[in-house]
């Protein structure tokens, strides 16, 4: 069984922690457990309940009315939501629930169904990437079991690779981006999504993959001369020193723009070398892609 903090629930549901505490006091659908030191924690059951309730509340149902519904009524109301955005959010919530339950058969069935109905392109952009954005914080804080991470990551990796193989762009942009993850970083899904996004825009990609020494990146860059170097860093190993990595990047690539995204950029306060830029949000990442 997983245990989640109130901050985890806020990140996954979009409901502020202050509001969650008020709901706990007024209604019966959230009943957190307490540690021996009296700190709140939430089980899989509370997470699932909150995801469903937050979705109904967002699309017009009052909390006081939802609190009176039983489990079957809540599920029925969720399935009846007609807005496209609501349907997409429901699917993402389903994926989160199947992930915490280790139900990989249902997880993959949901993804495959969306691919069948909407295509691999829309599945990646509308479902898989928003799902990864939501659960990324759990990977960073170790509030997700490694087994859960590996199982869903392997499924998503397969789908992204299919999308990369199949994507076709009718336009051709004469630019090349080299993609890599530094040594001790193995969280490859964000980088694969970037590979897919760039290729769909008609941009050439040199994909080195995960756990790549900077000397190897430098060797490839000297020969292929990419227009940009890009890395999406989520949760590298304990020996990884981000500040030193920035200095080495700046020294090796003073004349090639280096783009860094991912969780490690959020709290970095040191001055960046001139050639390095951070992209801290999904919108900033897409602005970069569209601006190439």
Written account of the structure:
The protein has a five-stranded parallel β-sheet. The longest helix has 38 residues, at 104-141. It is of the alpha/beta class. The protein has helices spanning 6-13, 17-26, 44-58, 63-66, 71-79, 84-100, 104-141, 146-166, 189-200, 214-224, 242-252, 282-291, and strands at 33-34, 40-41, 173-182, 203-212, 228-232, 258-261, 276-279. The model has no long low-confidence stretch (mean pLDDT 89).
Brief summary:
This protein has helices spanning 6-13, 17-26, 44-58, 63-66, 71-79, 84-100, 104-141, 146-166, 189-200, 214-224, 242-252, 282-291, and strands at 33-34, 40-41, 173-182, 203-212, 228-232, 258-261, 276-279.
């Amino acid at each position: 069984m997983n245990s989640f903090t109130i901050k985890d629930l806020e990140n996954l549901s979009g409901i502020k922690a202050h509001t969650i505490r008020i709901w706990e006091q007024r209604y019966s659908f959230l009943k957190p457990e307490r540690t021996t030191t009296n700190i709140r924690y939430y089980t899989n059951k509370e997470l699932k309940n909150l995801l469903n309730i937050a979705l109904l509340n967002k699309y017009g149902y009052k909390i006081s009315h939802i609190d009176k519904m039983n489990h079957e009524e809540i599920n029925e109301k969720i399935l009846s939501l007609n807005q496209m955005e609501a349907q997409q959010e429901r699917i993402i919530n389903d994926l989160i629930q199947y992930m915490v339950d280790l139900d990989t058969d249902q997880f993959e069935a949901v993804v495959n169904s969306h691919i069948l109905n909407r295509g691999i392109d829309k599945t990646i952009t509308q479902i898989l990437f928003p799902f990864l954005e939501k659960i990324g914080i759990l990977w960073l804080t170790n509030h997700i079991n490694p087994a859960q991470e590996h199982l869903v990551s392997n499924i998503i990796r397969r789908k992204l690779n299919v999308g990369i193989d199949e994507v076709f762009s009718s336009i051709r942009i004469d630019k090349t981006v080299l993609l890599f993850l530094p040594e001790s970083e193995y969280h490859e899904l964000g980088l694969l999504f970037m590979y897919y996004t760039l290729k769909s825009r008609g941009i050439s990609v040199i994909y080195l993959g995960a756990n790549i020494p900077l000397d190897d990146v430098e060797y490839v860059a000297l020969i292929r001369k990419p227009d940009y170097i890009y890395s999406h860093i989520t949760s590298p190993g304990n020996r990884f020193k981000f500040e030193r990595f920035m200095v080495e990047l700046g020294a090796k690539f003073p004349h090639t723009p280096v783009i860094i995204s991912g969780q490690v950029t959020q709290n970095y306060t040191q001055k960046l070398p001139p050639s390095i830029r951070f992209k801290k949000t999904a919108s900033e990442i897409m602005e970069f892609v569209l601006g190439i």
